[in-house]
Please model this.
Amino acid sequence: MSNITRREFIRQSMLLTAGMVLVSCEDEDQGGEGTYESPGMLLGNQLTKNVVIVGAGMAGLVAGYELVRAGHDVTILEARERVGGRVFTLRAPFSDGHYADAGAARIPPDHDMTLGYADHFGLKLDPFYPDSSYYVNLSGDERTLVSASDYINDPPWEGYHVNRQDFLKIRGGTDILPHAFADYLAEQIHLGAPVESIEQNSNGVVVRISDGTELNADRVLCTVPLTVLNRIQFNPQLSPEKLEASSGGYYYFNITRVFMQFVNRFWESEVLNGWGNTDWPEEIWHPTWGRQGPRGVLLSYLKFNRADEIDLLSEGDRIEHVLSRWETVFPGVQEHYEDGTSHSWALEEWSGGAVSWPSSEQEAALGAHIGAAEGRVHFAGEHASDYHGWMQGALVSGLRAAVEIHESDSYII
Ligand SMILES: Cc1cc2nc3c(=O)[nH]c(=O)nc-3n(C[C@H](O)[C@H](O)[C@H](O)COP(=O)(O)OP(=O)(O)OC[C@H]3O[C@@H](n4cnc5c(N)ncnc54)[C@H](O)[C@@H]3O)c2cc1C
Model:
């Protein structure tokens, strides 16, 4: 079809006949990408629905992507001035084109949706951990060097089923993945659009943004983390279980990362690769590993109460605190420091925490309710999945909600 897409042709024809729209996902022609399969492609012909998605993190983006490709009319409202949510690659204040991830970074080999969409968009993957030089382990004042082969043949956390050597990362920074979705959804995404209320009535759903704009929808998908869900007013009110979960009844933990750029990779003189662990506890990552020097960026990855403690400090004091502790890990570290920054997920206005981490009791009592649709409002996000704290969870839950919406109401064969 030359000047008009097949979808538009069908839309116009059907509008002429019954005021109704029939679409197919088999032969979409959008931006040259719509015809090829994706891991979560929606199947079957359905009535077009007018869908509003709240949040342009991985859950909202994947749902939006598949719903648009299946022919639905989608609007994505994002509170921040950027897409990606907890996938956020920092490129400042680093020099020489260096970057480091403040959020999602490593991908286990069995996360089929994360890897599947990376492949779908043609993204390049690299091993996450170095397989050469020495890792540092600091316990008390005792520093030990661990060979790369020993280190990467262990999991990053006790009991985890994947060894370090099998983790992957997206070349160029993890945010390339949400940006790939967002490039396709440029017309659908509205940034700086915090949703304040979601009201269901007999005609559908009305979504109101902070500037007073109201949007009408057949279906709404809400992907905001539970930590900030209570900033949206729902009418009718959410179920008691969702209210409990969004009032602190479903635990989240905090993560703060402190990033430091050095004028050179001084640790290499000791045949160190810049990675390691301390018993603070803390992971030490070297995001510029494998990239052209001479400068290098290291980061301190702090969780739970260590993240809460460092959040009490100013940014300058956070960096100073890490540098002074690291004198035992990388002797002379302070002399080589050039510039730095930090990122706390608990202090982020639209996150309010890093990742959901419910106790088994919380999961048993609330887990099944968190992703359950309420009327015409659907819910997704890493918290509404079995993969808490992973992009995979956001993608799986976003796709589950997209199927719910796609298959809701009438089904046309
Ligand atoms: C420090 C850190 C490290 C991580 N490491 C990894 C890792 O190595 N590998 C991995 O796979 N995963 C990792 N994750 C987890 C992964 O980043 C998340 O599971 C995933 O990105 C969550 O996506 P989401 O769509 O569920 O939520 P989010 O990314 O939080 O998206 C929700 C969106 O909703 C928006 N929003 C909130 N309120 C409103 C409102 N009222 N109106 C409009 N928009 C709103 C937010 O701005 C946000 O963009 C990590 C996360 C963190 C924080």
User: Anything to note?
Assistant: The longest strand covers residues 255-262. The chain has twelve helices and 24 strands. Residues 1-35 have pLDDT under 50 and may be disordered. The chain has two domains: 6-84+177-250+356-406, 89-174+255-344.
